[in-house]
Write a structure and sequence with these properties.
heterodimer; A: 108 residues; mainly beta; 7-stranded mixed sheet; 4-stranded antiparallel sheet; 11 strands; 0% helix; globular; B: 117 residues; 54% strand
């Protein structure tokens, strides 16, 4: 099974800061990597699919990059409404799905 | 718009069974694979199971294999999760989610399952 290592597990940043989260796969997953945002008490929301594609309606301050085993998720300018936990997710041969451990983003 | 509504959660004793439902609307349900994902209190997301758009293939996480069964009724636009032999560690919010290509693009609001004596 493919393992996803996400870091950091939490971070604190100021409004306007650039925030970066990384996700590493235990083997090559090409670009089959997605990023989700989950606010407290709510369902996850898809932000980035196929490593770097912005989901419709998602603000452009969110972006993703990477391929193979190493991926990065970036918030270019942190806003108060971005307080949430972010998860990476990979999909292996359409039969197994794995989430990273999550990154809790807080305002400093 | 796409809507997924889970139901069937509740409090159940260890070893008992429960069936969750996910009612879909706003899209052609029979065209999409569907997943169940769960989240234990204060924990991260854990994938549970997937079913192909036509029900022809199913796959499960090792933690639920042999105890949970995913199914669907495309005539009723409904996804199911039959959970047998429930354990305390199955306590979680259970979400259904729609598969689009390689991502989960729509999620329900979740239903809470509590396994406790």
């Amino acid at each position: 099974d493919i393992q996803m290592t996400q870091s950091p597990s939490s971070l604190s940043a100021s409004v306007g800061d650039r925030v970066t989260i990384t996700c590493q796969a235990s083997q090559d997953i090409s670009n089959y990597l997605n990023w989700y945002q989950q606010k407290p008490g709510k369902a996850p929301k898809l932000l980035i699919y196929d490593a770097s594609n912005l989901e419709t309606g998602v603000p452009s301050r969110f972006s993703g990059s990477g391929s193979g085993t190493d991926f990065t998720f970036t918030i270019s300018s942190l806003q108060p409404e971005d307080i949430a936990t972010y998860y990476c997710q990979q999909y292996d041969n359409l039969s197994q799905l794995t989430f990273g451990g999550g990154t809790k983003v807080e305002i400093k | 718009q796409v809507q997924l509504v889970e139901s069937g959660g509740g409090v159940v004793q260890p070893g008992r069974s429960l069936r969750l439902s996910c009612a879909a609307s706003g899209f052609t349900f029979s065209s999409n694979g569907m997943h169940w994902v769960r989240q234990a209190p204060g924990k991260g997301l854990e994938w549970v199971a997937v079913i192909w758009y036509d029900g022809s293939k199913k796959s499960y996480a090792d933690s639920v294999k042999g105890r949970f069964t995913i199914s669907r009724d495309n005539s009723k636009n409904t996804l199911y999760l039959q959970m047998n032999g429930l354990r305390a560690e199955d306590t979680a919010v259970y979400y259904c989610a729609r598969l689009r290509a390689w991502c989960l693009d729509s999620w329900g609001q979740g239903t809470l399952v509590t396994v406790s004596s």
